[in-house]
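Late entry, evening session. Most of the bench is empty. Finally got around to the prediction I had been postponing all week. Sequence below, unchanged from the version circulated by S.P.
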Amino acid sequence: MPRLQEMDIDGHRIVAQCFNEEKEGVPIVFIHGLTTSINFWSVVQIPVITEKFRWYSLSLPGHYPAAFPQGFCKEELTADMITKVLTEAIHELTDGRPVVLIGHSTGGFSALSIAEYEPEIVHSVVSISGFAKGKMTGAFGLLGWLAQHGTITEAIFKADLRLLVSNRNIYRVGIGIFASDKKALYSHPDLEKSLDVLYPDATRLDVHAMACYFKQIPDIDITERLSRITAPTLALAGMNDPVMSPKQSSLIADKVPDCELVLLDGAGHLPMVEREPQYRQTITSWLDTVM
């Protein structure tokens, strides 16, 4: 079982799972995406990580079991806030030693922003289905529109989110919005075990916190910061991502000076599930190169 570390960062309750702490070498910090939790990485982790590396799964602010400070309002949720809180959490986890940052979706954005904000603690970066501009598409784009357009539509957003997590079967169907290759998602041999882990966390999401994210994320844009990232970077995405356009990963690869771009054919927002063999090979080969 991983050790759980809780941190108070400027009033934010931030939580991390700590794995393989006896391992030497550069540690890896994983950051999950919007609406999921620190348990995401334990269900999709690849063998090279579990066998060889000291690694951490770090919560996004406001995502259970993390929590925003009491009275937190949407205007406080900015790229700078996310970056500063997570950077301080990484300092607490690793005493400021350089780390590999691997983030999915909003976690990918966070990893990139941290690498620009405090390069001394970032050895290298992997952005998986990440972004510099937070404009979401598909069902997530619609949820963002609902969250942004007034009291009535925000209430509809919150009702939709509560409905999605009201029943495990509904949640199981709902995760299909992330996938392009739904056959690969729903036929994955570990899907049910993964849902056993992830669904209870989803039922505990703070709908106010999620509304803050869906209101603010579409307006985030760190494009101008990308050219200041000095760490070796991998931008990995599915070519048919229904949530975040793969053009975002192409933009990242174009702007970050030392960046490799890998687009997986037929995959959506969950390349680690939809194209698992190619995803594993890409991450393993890239780590072999930079470590």
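Two things to note before I forget:
The beta strands are 3-9, 12-19, 28-31, 55-58, 99-104, 122-128, 233-238, 259-264.
The mean pLDDT is 96.
Will write this up properly tomorrow.
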